[in-house]
Amino acid sequence: MRKAGFILPVVVVLIVTAFSALFVVDERENVLVLQFGQVRQEIKEPGLGFKIPFIQEVVRYDARILGLQTQPLEVTPLDDRRLVVDAFLRWRLADVRRFREAVGVDGVRAAQGRMDRIMNAAIREVLGSVPSSAVLSEDRTALMNRIRELARREALTLGIEVIDVRLTRTDLPRENLEATFARMRAEREREAADERARGNEAAQRVRALADRTVIELVSAARREAEIIRGEADAERNRVYADAFNLDPEFFAFTRSMQSYERALRGDNSTMVLRPDSEFFAFLRGDGFNEDTLQAVRAAAEQLAREPDALQERLPEAGPAEPDAVRELEEMIGN
User: Fold this and answer.
1) How do strand 22-25 and strand 47-50 relate by DSSP bridges?
2) How far apart are CA 87 and CA 144, in angstroms?
3) Potential cystine with 287: which of 49, 63, 281, 317 (Cβ 3.0-4.6 Å)?
4) Cα separation of 284 and 288, whole Å?
5) Distances (CA, A) of 266 to 17, 22, 79, 291
6) DSSP state of 135
7) What is the pTM of this model?
8) Phi, psi of 94 (to 5 degrees)
9) C-alpha angle with apex 46: 59 to 37, nearest 5 degrees?
């Protein structure tokens, strides 16, 4: 019984010691076996590992791709225009042994602080060598590649492989935003004023051209109208002259009758003239004698018989109107 009671604790201790000597390596991990702080073994393949119990210890590191978001950083490009920049970094452990020697027991947390400083230095160096327009442009691939290469060279000393770098934000500092917006607004207002001025100038040219065209068209129309009116007046005067030359006494008689009709129109027509005025020549016996009456009657009869006689003698004049002939006959008959 005493022997069984002694063996059982020994077996338990051996079992615990055996289990403490075994450890499992996951496929997402890299493992270092340390003995008194020194690296004795590096395991990258997944499976079962062994260590000396109570003497050696196992340190696990994430073998997956990790990310790091840098803090906002102010940089000054070549044109002295300050910018606020931050970046996103993807990295992984390339050499676990070197990583342990470089960062010590703090591991990933210390590595992130070291990588943040490396990234800040690379960003300042690259973006400080180009103007702000290149940083603010949409295509910043070349700049990000340069930052990645600089960070990769520095990170290799830590056993870290830099996979990719992306600039996530490139903005102006808050205190410069209002001034920048005001300058942009002033530039846009100036461009708008220039556009309005050019538009007004073009409108003035169009209006001036339209006004000149109107004046030219109106002047040409008036000139044509005056020419046509002058030609019509000349034709009218020619017709009057030809009609007068056909029968001066009859022409004088009809013109006098027309004058009487226009002058003595209405019930209160009053005229102050000398009794021997030429206006009343056909109302006096000496002006309206038998010979004149016979000549007028003969002309009226001729027009009644041959209404186109006057048209034949005056080709450009209009034909004689029968109503006018009848009115003339009635007036002579009366």
Assistant:
1) antiparallel
2) 9
3) 281
4) 6
5) 150, 144, 99, 31
6) H
7) 0.48
8) -100, -35
9) 20
